């Protein structure tokens, strides 16, 4: 399958990286943690890339920008669930550091992507 334009975006690739790492981490959690915070965390993280992709496929700059903003909202939701995960000791120190590194890169890139979309 040939890659479409959104799959070539660094911001999209970073969102995939983040969601794949989160999936791997949550997969190993105890059942209660996985079925409560884990499900919410995975859905929020997966939603970042999904909204970037959907916006790119809508065909208009206005829709693209709107979905990119929804992706940013999903990133913030992901950060919320990660904060809950840290507070409840579900994450190891190395996992926290790895996730923080990706989020610290993804957040400004996503904002820059939003700003780059012409109205």
Descriptive overview:
The protein has 119 residues and is mainly alpha-helical. Helices cover 81% and strands 0% of the residues. The protein is built from 4 helices and no strands. The N and C termini lie far apart (31 Å). The model has no long low-confidence stretch (mean pLDDT 95).
Radius of gyration: 15 Å
| Total domain modules | 1
Assign the CATH architecture: Up-down Bundle
- The backbone outline, from C-alpha atoms, is elongated
Keywords for this structure?
mainly alpha, de novo design (two linked rop proteins), 4 helices
Secondary structure elements and pairings:
Blueprint lengths: L9 H18 L3 H27 L3 H27 L5 H24 L3
Helix pairs in contact: 1-2, 1-4, 2-3, 3-4
Can you give me a brief rundown of this structure?
This protein has 119 residues and is an all-alpha fold.
């Amino acid at each position: 399958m040939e890659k479409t334009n959104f799959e070539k975006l660094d911001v999209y690739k970073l969102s995939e990286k983040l969601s794949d790492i989160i999936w791997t981490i949550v997969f190993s959690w105890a059942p209660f943690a996985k079925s409560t915070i884990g499900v919410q965390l995975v859905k929020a993280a997966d939603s970042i890339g999904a909204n970037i992709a959907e916006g790119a496929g809508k065909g208009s700059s206005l829709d693209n920008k709107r979905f990119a903003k929804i992706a940013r909202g999903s990133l913030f939701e992901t950060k919320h669930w990660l904060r809950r995960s840290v507070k409840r000791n579900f994450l190891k120190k190395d996992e926290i550091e790895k996730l923080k590194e990706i989020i610290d890169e993804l957040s400004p890139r996503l904002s820059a992507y939003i700003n780059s979309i012409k109205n």
